[in-house]
């Protein structure tokens, strides 16, 4: 493999006025191996909060940086526009809300050169701000990192190095896009999961290295977490429909669980309501009461089991990450699971029944 050349960093962004300059400063400080040069393409999704002006000023100061328009305003269209402009033989995607080790890009290069993988990246490490004001964000980050909340995803395992089904962000030799194509622009979310699934199905390899280090700062509001994961859940069925399979079984569980809860609730309400309009002693009234009882029992059992599990996991996380987080963790964990589950149910309906996505889910929820 080449030991010198050009690395292209690609970045989609929209309305990041408070973060764009610190981000550019951190990218400019990346320590590349000898013989490698850097170019940076930032696709701005038509920001209206001053991001464009600050980014333009930075690009004037550092010729390695360039801004292009992303009228699609979503991640997939921004990434594809950057890839089309990129001159480098190795392409690294970065996110504005992540802080990178000074050797992040260099470690991506080293991992690719050592493995020959079609996509490489590091584990997804979340962190919250210090102090009382950052307590909810720290709870969000701690739950995010838990294997019990994430379904055992290896991308959350900070110590794991090896083949995986997906990595955080990603870094690719240009040949990957020539072989497998770019990102699916019909997807507002999960475009990276779909691209990685396409790589796997096409016989490619994805490699995670613990030496590729970064820190992601998640949402700091419980409702923002719920909305974010509802959108993630919504777009996953469109990926499944396109490829006829799920990338991993863990993607199905939240939707199935929430669906079971709703089914039990429907049985309880429908059975009880039906029994009210049937004369006592009638066979149909007995059947309706049985339906109501089954629904009530199922709802109670599922709620009890889930609530007990959430409390147990919250206790475990709080012991490791701080006892002051305990009172926030049940809400945060439920926000992850119910957001994703409800989004999945709506996504399955729109993907398989309506046959098209709802425009209401077409806006990013940062």
For this entry, give a set of tags.
three-stranded mixed sheet, 366 residues, Spore Coat Polysaccharide Biosynthesis Protein SpsA, Chain A, five-stranded mixed sheet, 12 helices, 51% helix, alpha/beta
General description of the model:
The protein is 51% helix and 12% strand. Strand 1, helix 1 and strand 2 (36-44) form a beta-alpha-beta unit. It is built from 12 helices and 10 strands. The chain has 2 domains: 5-220, Spore Coat Polysaccharide Biosynthesis Protein SpsA, Chain A; 250-354, no CATH class. Helix 9 packs parallel to helix 12 (329-354). The longest helix is centred in the C-terminal third of the chain and has 39 residues, at 283-321. The model has no long low-confidence stretch (mean pLDDT 90). With 366 residues, it is an alpha/beta fold. It has helices spanning 20-28, 51-61, 75-85, 104-115, 135-145, 147-150, 174-180, 191-201, 222-243, 253-276, 283-321, 329-354; strands at residues 5-13, 36-44, 65-69, 90-93, 98-100, 119-121, 162-163, 171-173, 206-208, 214-216. The strands form 3 sheets. A 5-stranded mixed beta sheet has the order 3-2-1-4-8. Strands 6-9-7 form a 3-stranded mixed beta sheet. Strands 5-10 form a two-stranded antiparallel ribbon.
């Amino acid at each position: 493999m080449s030991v010198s050349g050009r690395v292209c960093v690609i970045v989609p962004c929209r309305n990041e006025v408070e973060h764009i300059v610190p981000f550019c400063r951190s990218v400019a400080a990346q320590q590349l191996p000898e013989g490698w040069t850097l170019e940076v393409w930032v696709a701005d999704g038509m920001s209206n909060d001053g991001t464009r002006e600050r980014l333009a000023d930075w690009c004037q100061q550092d010729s390695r940086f360039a801004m292009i328009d992303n009228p699609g305003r979503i991640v997939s269209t921004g990434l594809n526009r950057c890839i089309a402009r990129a001159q480098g033989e190795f392409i690294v995607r970065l996110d504005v809300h992540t802080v990178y080790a000074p050797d992040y890009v260099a470690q991506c290069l080293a991992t690719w050169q050592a493995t020959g993988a079609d996509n490489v990246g590091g584990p997804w490490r979340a962190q919250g701000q210090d102090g009382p004001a950052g307590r909810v964000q720290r709870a969000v980050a701690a739950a995010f990192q838990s294997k019990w909340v994430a379904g055992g995803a290896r991308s959350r395992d900070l110590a794991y190095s090896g083949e995986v089904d997906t990595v955080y962000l990603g870094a690719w030799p240009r040949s990957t896009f020539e072989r497998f194509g770019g990102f699916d622009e019909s997807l507002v979310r999960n475009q990276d999961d779909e691209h990685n699934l396409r790589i796997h199905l096409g016989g490619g390899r994805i490699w995670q290295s613990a030496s590729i280090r970064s820190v992601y700062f998640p949402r700091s509001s419980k409702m923002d977490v719920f909305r974010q994961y509802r959108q993630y859940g919504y777009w996953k069925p469109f990926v499944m429909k396109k490829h006829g399979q799920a990338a991993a079984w863990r993607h199905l569980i939240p939707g199935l669980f929430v669906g079971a809860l709703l089914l039990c609730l429907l049985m309880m309400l429908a059975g009880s309501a039906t029994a009210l309009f049937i004369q006592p002693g009638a066979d149909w009234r007995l059947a309706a009461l049985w339906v109501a009882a089954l629904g009530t029992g199922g709802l109670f059992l599922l709620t009890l089991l889930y609530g007990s599990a959430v409390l147990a996991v919250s206790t475990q996380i709080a012991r490791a990450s701080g006892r002051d987080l305990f009172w926030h963790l049940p809400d945060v964990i439920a926000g992850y699971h119910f957001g994703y589950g409800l989004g999945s149910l709506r996504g399955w309906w729109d993907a398989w029944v309506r046959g098209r996505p709802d425009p209401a889910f077409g806006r990013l929820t940062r």
